[in-house]
Amino acid sequence: MEQEKDLTSQESLELIAKMIRKAKRDYLDTGLSSLLWGSVIIICSLVAYINSYLNIPALNLVWFLTVVAVVPQIVIAIREGKKRGTRHYEEDQVGGIWIAFGITMFLFGFIFSRFPTYDGISALYLAVYGIPTFATGYARRFKPSIFGGLACWALAIYSLYCGYPNTMLCITGGALLAWFIPGLILRMRYLKAKQQHV
Amino acid sequence: MFKDLNPILHSQLRLAVVSILISVKEADFTYLREKTDATAGNLSVQINKLKEVGYIDVSKSFKDNYPQTICKITPEGVKAFEEYVRDLQSYLNIKK
Where are the strands (E) in chain B, listed by range? Predict the structure, then answer.
């Protein structure tokens, strides 16, 4: 776009549409955060399920992995922020939803440590997993996340009827559908787009 | 030919820059250069023109010890862009 030329009104409209398309298409999630949290929750819930048969007290600490995973999440967020040359409008809104979700998760951890015998813990977790997942998918028009959010809500209801430790498998399914699979799809898209730009 | 069209926006590179900035919250200089395929010198001149008329805000900072220029469209810029698009549509007799 070095030589300035007289634009016709048609060319101007085409240029506007082209630039808007370029800017919109440019937003590509690396999928790393989804993969990280999907993996962590799948591991934790599967270990909790297996441990319900093994009864090894040390394995109950597996859920502390969710606290440890905050560190790589911060690293990912900082690195992705540095790489980007632009900020999109929905990023702040979606980011706010995920921060609120993170705080709610830690509050749940605190609340349910005081009431550990409450039967609907898994259902509540799954219901809340669905909120940011669905909202992100909706804001970014990303169907796998919309489906993942809906799956979390369906599993929340189902978990009320299947009893512990099967509720842990519901959590595994929720993490797989809401984060791990969408994360894989995003990662493949990102790597493909990156390859095309090289 | 297009005397009534806003002359600031009716320029290929400036229009490209404003079209990108209308779609995102903010963008840095490198990003704009990459998307518009413009040279740094030309882009810098056009960004300054847009800044002078108050269509964009430009802030300079440092990122990893390198200077970084962040551009953001202003409410005046949004208004001018909307008017420009309306004018284009009237030229083309596009009815909403």
Answer: 26-28, 56-63, 66-73
pTM: 0.78
Q: Which among A67, A62, A49, A68 is positioned nearest to A173, based on CA atoms?
A: A49
Task: Note the pLDDT tens digit of each residue in A111-134.
Answer: 888 887 777 899 999 999 999 999
Residue B96 lies in a domain: no
A154-168 confidence digits (pLDDT tens):
999 999 998 889 999
- CB burial class (10 A; 0-12, 13-18, 19+) of residue A92? exposed
Please state the domain count of chain B: 1
For residue B67, being part of any structural domain is answered with: yes
Cβ atoms of residues B11 and B46 within 8 Å:
yes
Which residues does B29 contact at the CB level (< 8 Å), separation at least 6? Answer: B40, B43, B44, B47, B68, B69, B70, B71
Domain with B52, as residue range(s), is 12-89
Under 8 Å between Cβ of A87 and B24: yes
Residues of A in contact with B12 (CB under 8 A): 1, 4-5, 7, 15
CB-CB neighbors (< 8 A) of B2 in chain A: 7, 9
Cβ within 8 Å, pair B25-A13:
no
Distance separating alpha carbons of residues A123 and A146, to the nearest angstrom: 18
Residue B84: list chain A partners with CB under 8 A.
Answer: 12
Report how far residue A58's alpha carbon sits from residue A136's, in angstroms, rounded to the nearest whole number: 35
For position B50, which CATH number holds? 1.10.10.10
